Amino acid sequence: CLLLFVCLRVSATAQQQISLSMRNATLEQVFSAIRQQTGYYFLYSNDVVKKAGKVNIDVKDAAIDKVLKICLAGRQLTYKIIDQTITIQEKAPEPLPVKPVADTVITGKVTDEKNNPLPGVTIAVEGSSQGAISNADGSFSLRLPAGARALVFSFMGFTQQRVELTGATNLQVKLAESTKALSEVVVTALGIKRDKKALGYTVAELKGADLSQGKEANVANALSGKVAGVQVSRAASGAGGSSKIVIRGNNSLQGNSQPLYVVDGIPLDNQNLKPASATGGIDYGDGISNINPEDIESISLLKGPNAAALYGQRGSNGVVLITTKTGSSGKGLGVRFSSDYSIGNALVTPDFQNEYGQGLNSDFTHFRATDGRIYTMAEAKTLGLQGMPKMSAGRDRIMRSSWGAKMEGQEYEDQWGNVLKLTPQPNTYKEFFNTEKQFINNISVDGGTEKVNYRFSYSNTHVNGYVPTNTLDRNTFNLRTQATITPKLQLDAKINYIAQKGKNRPTLSDASDNPAYLFISQPRSMPMHTLADYTWTAEDVAKQFGYSGVFPGLEKTYATNSSTANPYWTINNTHNEDNRDRVIGMLRLSYDFTSWLKLTARGGTDFYTDQRQRYRQIGTYQSRNRNGDIEEQVTRVREDNYDLLLSSNLELNKDFNLGLNLGASHQKRFMRLTGNTGQEFIVPKLYVINNTLTNSYLFDLQESEINSAYASGQLSFREFWFVDFSARNDWSSTLSPENNSFFYPSVSTSLILTDALKIQSNTLSFLKVRASWAQAGSSGNPYQLTGTYSLDQFTHGGQPMASFSSIIPDPNLQNELTTSTEFGADVRVLNNRLGASFTWYNASTKNQILDVPLPLSSLFEYRRVNAGEIRNRGIELSLNGTPLKLANGFTWESSFNFARNRNMVVSLADGVDAFVLGSDRGVIVKAEPGKPFGVIVSNGFAWLKDEQGRRLIDPATGLPLRTSGRVQEELGNAMPDWTGGFFNSFRYKGFQLTGLIDIRQGGMVYSQSNREELIYGTSKKTLPGRDGSYIASGVVAQQKADGTWEGTGQANTKPVFAQDYWNVVASDKESVVSEEMLNDASYMAMREISLSYQLPSKMLNGKFIKRAGIGLYGRNLFYFQRKTDGFSPEASSFNVNNSSLGLESTSLPMMRNFGINLNLEF
Amino acid sequence: CTKDFEELNTPPTSVTDVDAGLLLSKVQKDAAMVEGNERANIEFGSWIQHWAGGQVAPVSRYIQQPTDGVWASHYALLRNLMQIRTQSLKGMESNPAGKSKLAIAKIMEVTVWQRLTDLFGDVPSSETSENASNVNTKPVYDTQESIYTRLIADLDNAMAQLDPADASYGNADFYFKGDAAKWKRFANSLKLRLGMRIRYAAPQLAEKTVREAMAQPLLAGNTENAAIPTYNNAQTTNAHPVLQQFIGGSPDLRYLADALVRTLKTKNDPRLPMIAAPTVNSVKAGTPDYRGMGVALTDAELLAIIKDDYSTASTTTYFNRTLSTPIPCYVFTYADVCFFKAEAALLGWGATAADAETFFKDGVKAAMALQPYNITTIPPAYETAELSFAGLSAEQQLEKIMTQKWILLFGRDYEAFTEWRRTGYPVLTPGGNQGSTNGTIPRRAVYSSLEVLLNGENYRAAVSRLTQGDAYVSRVWWDKKP
Prior knowledge:
The structure holds 2 protein chains of 2 kinds.
Chain A (H helix, E strand, L loop, with lengths): L17 E9 H12 L2 E3 L2 H6 L2 E9 L1 H9 L4 E6 L2 E6 L14 E8 L9 E4 L5 E3 L5 E5 L6 E5 L6 E4 L5 E6 L9 E3 L5 E3 L7 E5 H4 L18 E5 L8 E5 L12 E4 L2 E3 L27 E7 L2 H4 L10 E6 L6 E16 L19 E4 L4 E3 H7 L3 E4 L6 H4 L10 E3 L5 E3 L6 H5 L3 E13 L3 E13 L6 E16 L2 E15 L11 H7 L6 H5 L5 H6 L23 H7 E21 L2 E20 L12 E23 L4 E26 L10 E26 L3 E12 L8 E12 H4 L7 E15 L10 E3 L10 E3 L2 E2 L7 E14 L4 E20 L8 E24 L5 E17 L7 E6 L2 E5 L7 E4 L13 E2 L15 E5 L4 E11 L2 E11 L2 E4 H9 L18 E5 L5 E7 L6 H8 L12 E3 L2 E12 L12 E16 L20 E2 L6 E11 L1
Parallel strand pairs in A: 2-5, 6-12, 18-21, 42-45, 50-55, 54-60
Antiparallel strand pairs in A: 1-3, 4-5, 6-9, 7-8, 7-10, 10-11, 13-14, 15-20, 16-17, 18-19, 20-21, 22-28, 22-61, 23-24, 23-25, 26-27, 28-29, 29-30, 30-31, 31-32, 32-33, 33-34, 34-35, 35-36, 36-37, 37-38, 38-39, 39-43, 40-41, 43-44, 44-45, 45-46, 46-52, 47-48, 48-49, 49-51, 52-53, 53-58, 54-57, 55-56, ...
Chain B lengths: L4 H4 L11 H14 L4 H5 L1 H4 L20 H21 L10 H22 L2 E2 L16 E2 L1 H18 L18 H18 L5 H12 L11 E3 L12 H8 L9 H9 L5 H4 L4 H5 L14 H5 L25 E4 L1 H14 L7 H15 L10 H7 L7 H15 L4 H11 L25 H6 L1 H9 L18
Antiparallel strand pairs in B: 1-2, 3-4
Helix pairs in contact in B: 2-5, 2-6, 5-6, 6-7, 6-8, 7-8, 8-9, 8-15, 15-16, 15-18, 16-18, 18-19
C-alpha cells in the first residue's frame, strides 16, 4: 500500500446543498455521494480513510461543512477545503498544556527498547542551547530554562525522540533503534546545527568513531572512500605528510582546490608550507594533520558553495567542518584512555627482475687483468687475458645498468674493488627500509556540573618511519569547557596546543637524496652491504673504476652523477628537523535574549611557528664543492577570526517558522618567514649558519584581511517544506578599493514529500527532494596588483642589481566567483532499511585570478588576470542499508557511494591556448579550453605509426621508429571517470567487523620511475627477449624517396635484443617515448578492515572500568585491481598541489598498516 | 573598516620603481654569465668541440631538444631593458639626463637580439610587448633578415644619440663605467660584427655595413674590452661561469673535447696548460700529458672511456677557486674586432688584403694577453708556424683567422657556435652518435616548447620557413656559406 490518491470527478452541475441518507457506509462511499452532488474533488490516502470505519448519516440540504463534520466526528481525521478540493488528513495530536517548568531539574534514564542503558545520548531542551548527555548507565540530569516545552533525545543509530514536558521530573525514555537515524542533526555553515532533513543541499556527516577505526594519523586520509564525490590522495611522503582532499573535482587551476577546514567554528590554516616540487623538496605536513583524531566528535562535509556559501572566500571548494568533543553537564568524572600500535610496510614496490646483473649487452663491461690494468671486456676477450670482470660506475645506462650477464654466481670485482659473486639481490627495499611503527596514546578526562562541563585530552603520537631515522613526535593538549554563566549567558572556550617534531623526513621526487631514487636504477646484482659502507676509503679510491675526483671521506655513490645519493649516507650524514608549536584557541559567548533571540560572539586564533633546520655534512656529493650545506628557517603563521552572530527563531504562525541570522566577521592572516642558507662548511661537524663560506637569506612576508557581513535564514512550513537563503558581502584587502567589495547569495529548498503528503508507509519511509543555487567569491592572495622589481640577493663586486617581475600584474583584478546549482533527492524505503541519496550538480568558477602563461617571446612569463571558466558537473549517489538484521542482534549494514565528475575547462584568458599545471621530464600536464582539466601531453618522442596506428619498424634494425625530435601530442587525462566506496559493517553483540573498499576508475598517471626502470633494465618488463628474441610489435616500414617512412602492412618478425628495444623506448632521462611511461591509475583497493570488540556493559557493571574495547585493523591491505607498474596510483604524487596532478616521480611506497587498539573508560 | 587595506596590500619585500642602472647591471652580468655556464658548455660548447659534453647530456650527442633555457634567459634580458625604456627613463629621449643612458640600453638590446636570432633564426622581435600594460601574447616571428636590418639601423641611431656630456650609468655599467666614447666604439664594433655575420646571405648590405664600421673608431685595445669582472672570494654567483661549473656542477661534465686539446697541442699553443689540465693517469705515471675526449660518442665508445685518461679544464686557471686574479667574463674583446677586421681586409672592405695579416696578428696577440693567459710575448716558433699568411690562399687565411678566433672564444659558447656555422672553420669532425641529426653537428637551437603550446600559430608560420622544420639540422638565414 502506498501513495494512492483518489481523485473523483463530478458532473458540471454541481450543487452546494447536500442531501444524504446512508447507513454503515464507508467514508469512500459517502465521499463518492458528496462528489456526485457537489462536484468537489476529494484528496485522501486510502489507508487513512479505511481505518476510519463506517458511518451513518442523514442530512437534507445541508452545507458541505456540516456534512463533513458529521462524517468525521469522533475520528482522528480533519478536512480542509481549498477551491473545489477537499483534503482529508489525519488530525495532529492535541497539544498538551504547557506547564511552567523553569529551573526544574529533570532527571531520568535513557534506554533502548530492550532496557539496556544508553550512554552518550544527547538531550536537548527544544528551542534552547541547553542540554545534557546521558552517562554510562543512561541516566541524565538537567536544569530547565524558562519557557522549556520539550526535550529532544538523539543518539546515533536511534530515532530521535521528542518528549513533551508535562510536569514530571523523572523521565524514563526508550529510544527506538533505526538503521539510520531518521532525524539527524548535522552541523552546517557557521556551526549552526540543523536537522538534516531540512537541508536543500548535500552535507555528509561522519562521526568520530567512524573515522578512527583505521587509525589514520592524518584525519583527512580517513575520509578516503567514505563519502561520495570526495577524492582523497596523499603525497608519498613519509611520516606526518600531507593529504589532499578534492570535493567534486578541481575548480581551480592554480593552487590545490582543497576545501577549507573549520574546527569548532574557527578556520584552520591548512597550507603546506614550501611543498616538494618535481625536482625535490620535503613534505613537512599540512595543518589538518595536526589535529588529534580522537578529539573529533564529528565531521561535516559541506560539498561546494551550496552548503558553504557562508564561508565565502574559501568556501568555494567546500568545507570540512570539524566539531570536537565536549564534556557533558551534570555528569561525574569520566576518564577515557586509548592506545594504538600499528606497523607498516610497503604495499607496492617496483616489479624488479632478479635474473640479470650489472653490465651491458648481456655481459660485463670491463675486466681487471692480473696485471692490475682495466680493459674493456671486448679487449680482454680478444687478448685472452686472465683476471676477473670489473664493474664500472658512471652516469648513464652504459656504465651501470642491469643489462648484463645472467646472475649465476660469477666472481667479479665491483667498482670500488670488492670481490663479489654475481647473485640476485631481491630484497633491496627490505634491507634498507624499516618497518614503520606508529604508537598513539590518548587520554581524556571529562565531566561537568550542571553549570560547567569540561573535557581535557592529551595525545601522544610517535612514529618511527619507513625511511630509517625518520621519526615524528606529536603531542597535543586540548581543553574545552562550556559553562552556563547565567541562565541566559553561555560560554564555550577551547585551547588546543600542538607540539610536533619531525626528524629526517625524506626528500621526494627527482632529487638525489630521495631514498627511493636509488633503488629504481640500482644494478640488480649490487648488494646493499657495499653501499652500507657509505664513505670512500683510500682503498676504494685506489681500486675504483669509472669515477673521477673522488677522495677518502666523500660520500660513496654507486653512480657518478649528482642524482643518486647513497641512501645510507643520506640517513646518517644528512639531517633535517622541524619543530612546530601551534596554538588554536576559541572563545564563544552566547546570550539568549529570549527563547527566540540569541547573540553569539566568537573569537578564534590559530597561530604556529614552524622552525626548520636542514644540513648535509661535509663530503655530501650533492653539496656545493662536496663541502656540505645548511639551511635554517622560521615561519610564523597566524590567522585570527572574529565574528558576531545574531540569530532568531520566529514561529510566525502555526505553519510557518522563520530562523534569521545576521552576522559580521573579521579575518586577519599573517605569514612571515626568515631564514638563512649557508654553503660549504668551514669547520667540520659544526652545524650552524655562521660556519659556512657563503650564506644567503630567506625572507617572505604576507598579510591580508577580510571583513564580512552576512545574513542567512531558514523558512519552514509545517516541518516539511524548507527554504534557506544566505547573502554575504566581503571586503578584502587583496583587491583594489574599487573592487574589494563583493557580494554573493545562495538559496536552497527542500520538500519532504512523505511528510507533505502524510504518507505513512512501511515501503516508502521517507522521500525528500531538494534544490539549491549558490555563489561563492574569492579574492586571491595579497600583493597581486602591482608589478615589482626584486633586488638580487648578492651584489656583484658591490654593484646591486634588480630585475622586473616576469608576471604582468593587473591593478583591476576582481574577485573570483563560483556559481553552483544542485538538485537531489533522498529516499528511504522498507522501514528505513534502505536509503539512497542522489545529487546532480553543476558548478562553474569564473574570473579566476590566474597567472596565465605567456609565450616568453612576449617578454613576460605570466599575466595575472581574471580569467577563464572551469565547470564541474557531476552526479553523486549513495546507498545505505541494512541487508540483514536478526533478532539475536546480528546486524549487517552496508553502504555504497559513487561519484562521477565531469570537468571542463570552458575557457581560459583571451589569447591563451593552454595553462600548464605541471611538467616533468617528457611530459606536460595542462588545462585547455574545451577539454577536461589535466590533459597529459607528451613532451618526448613519439612512435612513427601507420594510418591504423601500428608502429613502424625499421626493417634494417628490427626496432621501432620514433620521431627525430620531441613532439607534443596528447596522451590522456589525469582525472578519474568515477570514484566510489563500498563499506560493510557486521555487528553482533559486542563485535563489529567493518571493511571499506575504495575505488577509482579511469585517469592516467605518468611514471618517472618506469622510465628509470626501462633505461636501466631493472624491472621485469625488461626480461623478455634478453637473448635477442624480442620482437617489437608493429609493421615493417619502408623509406620513401623523401626520406620519410611508410608502413608496408607486413607484421614485423625480426628479433632484437631486449636491451636495444628498450633503449629506443627510453635511452636517457630526456629521451623517452612518452606514451610508454603512461599508466592507468584505476584501482580498487581494500582500504580498511577492522574488527573490534566491546565488552558487554553488564560485565562491567559497578566495576572500576566502565567500558572496555579492543580493536584490530588493517589499512591499505591489497588491491582487487591495480594497473600501475610498480607503484600505488593513489599515493604517487610528490605534493598535494595541482602541479603534481598525473605525475609520479620515484615515489616512496604507500604503507600497508596493521594495528591494534585498546580503549578503556573509567 | 577598509581604510588600511591599501597599505596592507603594498608589497613589503619589493619596489615598484628602480634606478635604470640596477637593471643595466643585471642585464650585463646575466647576459655574459649565461654564455659560459655548464648548461651552455655541454650543449653549444660541445657542438663546437670545446667541451666533451657529457655522457648523459643528450644534446651533446645530437639528440634534439627544445632549447627552452636560452630562449627564456634572452627574453628576460630584453624585459629588463624594456623597463629602462618604458619606466625608469621613460620620455627622456632628448633629455641629457636620460638620452645617452637610453642609447646604451639600446646597444645592449642589440647584442641580446643578435645573439638570440643567431641561435634560433626567425624570432618574435618587432611585435614583442612594448610595455607591461600593453602585452602582446601572440607576437609574430620576424625573419632574421628583417631583424638584422633593424639592428644595424638601431646601432646607427644609438651611436648618434650618445653624448659624453650626458648623464651616464657610472659604476652600474660593468663594461665601460658609463664612458660614452667607449660605448660608441663598442657599438661600431658590434656593427662590424653584424655586417660580417650576413656576408654570405646579404653581401651588399654586409659590405656597406662593414665598410661604414671600418671607417669609424672601433675598440682599440684590451683596455676597451667589454667584460664583467668576476670574484673568487665571494658568492658562487660572482665567480666566472666556468668556475661556477667547477664549484657547483657535475664532475662528469668537466672534460674538454679532443678537437680543442689536440689543436692546442699540435700547434704548441702556449695557452694549452692554462686551458686544459693534464690527465690524472698521466700525472700518476709521472708523464703529464693532455688528451681531450671525443664528442657525441656512441654507446660502444662510451664504454671504453676511462675518465682519468682525459683532461678537464685547467685546475690552475678556470677551475681554480684561489686564482689570485680572477678571469673576467668576456663579452666582446679587441681581439674579436681584430679578427673581424682581418676578415674585412681579406674582402677588401674598408682595408686592403695586405692589412689582413697585421690585423690577424694583432688579434692573436690581444687574445694571448687576456686573462688568464697573460702571454705578452708570443713564442717565435709559434709566430712563425701559426701567424704567417705567407703563401696562403684567402680561404686558407680565413681558416687561420677563424681557428684563432675559435680558441679565443673558449668560454663564449654562443659566439663560438655562431662563427663556426658562419664560416665552417675550423673544420670539425662530428662525433659518431647519429642522434637526431644523422650524425651531423647541429646548425641551430630548437624553439622553446612553450612557444608550441602558447604561440602555436606564429610558431608554425616560422617553422614553415625552415628548410627542415624546427630541427637542429635546419639552417638560419645567414648560414649560407657555399
